[in-house]
UniProtKB/TrEMBL annotation:
UniProt name for this protein: Proline--tRNA ligase
Entry-linked SUPFAM superfamilies: Class II aaRS ABD-related, Class II aaRS and biotin synthetases
Protein species of origin: Candidatus Giovannonibacteria bacterium RIFCSPHIGHO2_12_FULL_43_15
Organismal lineage: Bacteria, Candidatus Giovannoniibacteriota
EC supergroup of this enzyme: ligase
Catalytic reaction annotation: tRNA(Pro) + L-proline + ATP = L-prolyl-tRNA(Pro) + AMP + diphosphate
GO biological process: prolyl-tRNA aminoacylation
Amino acid sequence: MKFSELGTKTLRNSPKDEESVNAKFLIQGGFINKLGAGIYTFLPLGLKVLNKVESIVREEMDVAGGTELLMPALHPAENWQITGRWDSFDALLKTKSNFGGEYAIGPTHEEIIYPLLSHFVSSYKDLPVSLYQIQTKFRDEKRAKSGLMRCREFRMKDLYSFHATGEDRDKYYEVMRKAYLKIFKRLGLNVIETKASGGTFSELSQEFQVIAESGEDTIYYCSKCKIGINKELRRELRSPTSGSLKSDFGACSGCKGELIEGHAVEVGNIFPLKKKFAEDFKLTFKDKSGKDTLVEAGCYGLGTSRVIGTIAEVCHDSKGIIWPRSIAPFSVHLLELDGKKAKIKAFTQKAYKRLLDAGVEVLYDERDVSAGEKFADADLIGIPFRAVISEKTGGKIELKERNSKKIKLIKVDELIKKLNGNIR
Ligand code: ATP
Ligand code: MG
């Protein structure tokens, strides 16, 4: 894609009204635009990143046996009244129809998927079922101030699995846990598997936390074993007679080493669901002996837009974001310097076409702006490879990785090979 076709611009300065690193860089780099507190447009560059994140999530959910569906974001109030969460869910956004009826705007989908499943599950033969969606969620967050980390409108993958027995659910929980680890690895995120209190509807939940100074959660973790425990849970487990938290948090359950305290961002959360929703919506099946039995279920959430904010928080330098290759908006940023010279223009256009023909995703900066501006934008946007063509590169391309200082002169063919393109 040509830079001028993006339809957006980078900003010369970072936005003054944003405190968080991710919001500053993502807005300045032209990935997102703020409409209001916790409400952002995904601009073309940002949408490319979001689509890549969601493709990885989708692929791994499919491998783990999930099947995709899409549920509505507009929920009749009645569904939420049945579970009691119409009044108890703090962040529930509500709206009234002009033609009668009240609605919740979906923050999560237990209230929808349980009654949905009751249309299709009646016998043990109909189980297990594993359904997921990737969707825009709405929550009336009080403190929506950290860019993509805590939004009022955000993207989430939520999967719900339904089983005839708790054992079957627990087995599937393990499949999902591994799928989550695979996803975060592909996303280039180092996650700590963290035990947390499950709140009202499950005994225990497990969070996937990324260590970051800006994280809202505090966890105790072992950096070697990549496991941790959320401070809030720790508090709940403390006996009234125990001493300070510091002396209380103990050793790593894996290597017995000392745990470190750190701030972290929750990027995913998985938990077995108690029987509550099955009881509320009477989601039962006939077991082998013909007895009506409540389904067992698990819930598996992953914040796809929060993942982008988290990566911006942990993968950047003073000049901008450094995207992992798997989710970068493009594989290579082609900078045309001295483009007024017909020879350079022709050579760059040819290189651009060859890259496209080879299936390489390339952002071609053909704008008539200074070299300094192009270099600054390349650093800010953070595409993993920068390829410069100028009078000085003498018929070759000067290649530099975003996170390295080394430069190298190479031929177009070599560049294509390096980027895993198909040379024709
Ligand atoms: P948190 O503890 O951060 O409020 P949560 O425990 O309420 O999140 P879940 O309901 O489990 O979150 O949602 C699943 C995932 O959705 C979370 O792990 C997180 O990645 C993401 N998420 C939740 N709330 C938001 C939000 N307001 N903005 C962006 N992402 C969110
Ligand atoms: Mg949480």
